[in-house]
TrEMBL record, chains A, B:
Protein name listed in UniProt: Guanylate kinase
UniProt lineage: Bacteria, Bacillati, Bacillota, Clostridia, Lachnospirales
Encoding gene (name): gmk
Family the UniProt entry places it in: Belongs to the guanylate kinase family.
A GO cellular component entry from the record: cytosol
Keyword Chloroplast: no
């Protein structure tokens, strides 16, 4: 089947556990690579260039924008964040399924440029459960939690642009479902047009015999 | 996730082993029901009405056509064959994933009336391998084998209307892949619009609190 990797976009509400799902995927299977974002913010202690982020100066980042070398980018609090194409394309060419863990607006921009990308949305079973999880973390103030819930309400308006909805109720089940959805991509006819053409040609030649 | 069953169309070259794949699915998993065709041909010894086929008179069958009670039908050698809607719809409503093992022309007709249906095409790894399998069966004359290969060449022209291509090289792998492709249907956002709407509504109400 198709040897090229698939581009996979995973989004979800803050608190849905998508970070954990992605970590488990990377740990359990060798077929995945994680897209690395570029940013102009300063590295934090322990962060390494080309591991957590591609750290760039403002000028370098703006050069990437000019060269159309990013799938998408956005500005938050004076810093740029974006998804460099080159790293993703290298990994895809090497046969890796590349995962972009990205918020909904960025996801739609990437999908526009890559119609064949797979869009997955990770959600807890209900909004109630989402709020419980954010509260149970115990690390956020109620102000932050309410902010996240407001943000989730906004994001939920875009959920129906995604192709698949994965409910993160049991982590192992969720990871397995995401893995299967991604691997199914390789069975799509549209990803195997070379094989289809080979079989058609071979059958035509046999008929001529 | 969605409780209603999915409609699944499985096609493939004669000799690709799709019958065996379908049998294994039915044996290994409880979630499937097999669509039963209607026909005007006479029952053969051992065949039972409502098990192998819905056996109908010509008048009864033509009445089904008039009532638009078939997804598709065709005539071969003076006999009608078709897929009655009622049985499929009952099974879907009961939450079963319903499998139609059907040839390519019929498949396209069913898909037209059921755009949400999943179309799978089962194929050996190559045309060469298909011919080997037909020969190795040892039950057919070379004339019949050549007929099947010609038919395969025709069918292969329609392969790219299918969504997924499943290579039947190792039977167990093939059955597992087909099962996963079908089960993934239940995670489609388009199959879970009620859940999406619930989450959107719940989040909106919380924001209003």
């Amino acid at each position: 089947m198709s040897k090229k990797g698939s581009l996979v976009i995973i989004s979800g509400f803050s608190g849905a556990g998508k970070g954990t799902v992605v970590k488990e995927l990377m740990k359990n299977y060798e077929c995945y690579a994680l897209s690395i974002s570029a940013t102009t913010r300063n590295p934090r202690p322990g962060e390494e260039n080309e591991r957590e982020y591609f750290f760039k100066t403002k000028e370098e980042f703006e050069e990437l924008i000019r060269q159309d070398a990013l799938y998408e980018y956005a500005q938050y609090v004076d810093n740029y964040y974006g998804t460099p194409k080159a790293y993703v394309e290298e990994q895809l060419a090497a046969g890796k399924d590349v995962i972009l863990e990205i918020e909904v607006q960025g996801a739609l921009k990437v999908k526009e440029k890559n119609p064949q990308a797979l869009l997955l949305f990770v959600t807890p079973p209900s909004a109630e459960e989402l709020k419980h999880r954010l509260i149970d973390r115990g690390t956020e103030t109620m102000d932050v939690i309410n902010d996240r819930m407001r943000r989730a309400a906004e994001e939920s308006e875009i959920m129906d642009h995604y192709q698949y909805l994965v409910i993160n109720d049991d982590l192992d089940t969720c990871v397995k479902e995401v893995h299967q959805l991604i691997q199914s991509q390789h069975l799509k006819v549209s990803e195997n047009l070379d094989l289809v053409a080979d079989i058609q040609k071979e059958l035509k030649e046999m008929k001529g015999e």
